Amino acid sequence: MASAQIEAEQLKSEGNAAFGEGRFEQAVELYSRALKRAGSGGAAGDSRDVAVYYKNRAAAHLKLGHAQSALDDCEAALRIAPEDPKSLFRRAQALESLERYEEAYRDARAVLNAEPANAANAAVQPLLARLFRLVQERASRNAQTENRVEQMFAIAFDPGAERDKRETAASNLLVLAKQAAGAHIMFEKGVVRHIRRLLKLEKSAAVALSCIRIVAQLCEKSVERVRGVIEACGIPWFLELIDSDEEQRVAAAQYCMQCVLNAFSGMDNKPESKPDQRLCDLHKPEIDTLLTCLTCSITNRVISGRARDAVVELVMKNCHYTALSWAERFVEIKGVHRLLEVCSELDEYRYESAMNVTPSSRTVAAVCLAKIYENMYYDQAREKFTAQVDDFVKDKLLNPDIESKVRVTVAITSLLLGPLDVGNAIVSKDGIVEMILVMAGTDDVLQQKVACECLIAAASKKDKAKAIINQGVNILKTLYKSRDDGIKVRALVGLCKLSSSGGTDASIRPFADGSTTKLAEACRRFLVNPSKDHDMRRWAAEGLSYLTLDADVKEKMVEDKPAIRALVELANTGDQSAVYGVVTTLVNLCNAYEKQELVPEMVELAKFAKHHIPEEHELDDPDFVSKRLCILAKEGVTTALVALSKTQSDNSKELISRVFNALCSQQELRGIVVQQGAVKVLLPMALEGTANGKKQAAQALARIGITINPEVAFPGQRSLEIVRPLSALLHPDCAALENFESLLALCNLASMNETCRQRILKECGLAKIEAFLFEEHQMLRRAATQVLTNMVQSEDVVKMHEDKNDRVKFLCLLCQEEDEDTALAAAGALAILTGASKKCCSKILDSSAWLETLHCLLANPNAQIQHRGLYTLLNVFNNDKEVAEKIIATDVMEILMALTKLQDESRKVVIEYAEKCLKVAKDMKLIQTPEEAAKLVALKEEEEDEDD
């Protein structure tokens, strides 16, 4: 025990030494080891030594800016020694950093009262004065806020007041709720109880909406207030809020529930947000209760269809392993079964107990099933998921009536649109395809409809398509002759999908020549006909999504302005069930799909082996693609993509990103893309989703950042948010073009301000950019050098170049590059560095080829490079006489003299800076004028004569 205490004291002493030398991170580590050793040695919990270790570590945390950790350590020390002045003082400092000024002021007063005559109070006095001012200011603001809250309360919650005034008052309360002081005051005054009573009878949609948003603001990042809201209203109240057909109210209630989950888990609404595992463990009962209630609400028979979609979206967002990782629990409580119930719901079977659904409900449920299955990353979990699906299908098929077969077929279709592996496994079971084909061959319109939809979804792969071509193509042709448009359009889509099974390969045609064009014309008639309902046009768009793999169809499609406009109008509805058809059609028209690179050597080998080689259609040449992109952009396709980007499907987001990226590949279209709001939706898509989707969105943003002023394209906070996706493109696995475009965009961002440069340093690190300085590819090397030129405007980057490394040396070598733009950028970086740092001036001589570098700069045919070289030389002369002497001792002086005698009007600045360099050298007595040299020679001769 004694040895443990001795060792702990030794560690404390080492920590004190590290602290004194400014090595604060090491000090934290040593104090932590002292605490651990003291505990292992059986030190009592109230040991005064342990309190010292805690308060010393708190001091180190404060130096590192870790206010919360410092606060925790101070509180631990004060539990052992409650009146310790140093612990109180450091807790006051931590509380001040956390903007908890009233508590900090209390602690500072306690320190002063504990030792009024102590010399240490010299440090407390300024803190106390500063906190007193802050507390007074906050008290004054709070008093004003309290008055405003009371005034707004009186109007907003008075049913007899004028409607306009109440709506304005509710809106003002929402503004106040966004402020920390306002939220605190409103919560203390019982705003939640007022809102709960009001919403029961409120007739004004605007007032109700503001009230729900106020509750959301109160719940944001405050567990205490969330508990208060739940205590006052209960969890079922949140589900009552979301039960509405009004889109804005449902969205506000959905956001409110997400704020509750975020408060318990430590997440926020940013795409890259991750939960705090400590908070998740601490609030596990509350999180489980909330998500269980949401899961049970999926099949609630009384809520609206829009509310049901919002509930499923909440489950989808929080179940993923990147969020609350609740998918396995969801499966355990039969959540998969509930989603399949939603998928099997049909408008044709409207009983009193039927669920309300929207046209998007089935799509949203299918995407949720896919997300849940994605989380089943080990075999046992997947078996549980599949078992629930099997149970659902068996249960439906055990019932002999037709309705059960129809419902199970619709559910299978959703599985094929969601977790495809599970859907394919179900379809491959004995009797399933036969059942679907029998249903398609009946005279019952509903059976024909759902069978067509399932056949379309089942033909997802070439092998499956082949089987269905053999068995079902005649049935589809028969159904296409139906008088019912709903049946006809579905059969048409089935034929379109089977017709396109050859993909973009021009040599494969499953049906007769010209059939795809005829099918496309049939789809077009459904799409542009205003008398056809939304569902018909959605199916027509899906048919075109298959047919537009054919280049002939693409060309006819883009020339058909009414068809393009109808497609854009369909997308602008935001219907999630239309996402796939519209976006895939656009991807095909833009040739934005994944292309297999054909290596010439492998093609020759395939020909020799008599293997099939895909052929590209002549209408898919870049010139034709560019023309199609321009037509689509002018017809407003960007607004359509923005509307569809609300989808929760990562695969759909990838397709949207592909179209955006294709549009941005045309420089003249980037302005249109920005004007129509693409940046706002591209940013989150570049941060989360599929790997290819993130890359496509990031490249689109890079292309925008190259052409358009970043201050215009990425205003405000977006200029910082874009840095992360751009830095992701600097990965070795990315293509050279992606690297190059990212570097160019980062170069423009780095020129904006120091805040952007700091964010680039944080996200990319200088090493990530500098890695491209060593690339063999000239364009990449040039772009990286240009980024570096803008980055050296940051003091932190200058300090990095001052350290013991070869950064300055390498810049000198880059100045000798044959590529003029690279040399120009390197010379600019060198000029900035030497102007900002004396150390960098001396480091120029680190390179063995420093004289060649100066020759290259000063005698360069490019006047701009010469100017930058002379500017660098002037900086060296002004900052480091020793280095200047070494330079002047070479032939550099002769070059400078020659430059001053130039008669070139275009090089006035070069001549001016050459003269400045000579003047500084003369002032430093490094060179002399001819007259001074003659006098010096004469003086020496006189001295020699006297000696004789």
Characterise the protein shown here.
The chain is an all-alpha fold and 948 residues long. The chain has a domain at 2-118: Serine Threonine Protein Phosphatase 5, Tetratricopeptide repeat, CATH 1.25.40. Helix content is 73%, strand content 0%. The protein contains 56 helices and no strands. The model is unreliable at 41-46, 461-465, 502-512 and 932-937 (pLDDT under 50).
Strand percentage lies at under 5%
Helicity level: over 70%
CATH superfamily of one domain: Tetratricopeptide repeat domain
- CATH level 1 class label of one domain: Mainly Alpha
Return the CATH topology of one domain.
Answer: Serine Threonine Protein Phosphatase 5, Tetratricopeptide repeat
Number of strands: 0
**End-to-end Cα distance:** 89 Å
- Assign the structural class, choosing from mainly alpha, mainly beta, alpha/beta, alpha+beta, or little secondary structure: mainly alpha
Reported CATH architecture of one domain = Alpha Horseshoe
Mean pLDDT: 83
The biggest sheet amounts to: none
Q: State the shape.
A: globular
Note the total helix count.
56
Query: Cα-atom Rg, whole angstroms?
Result: 36 Å
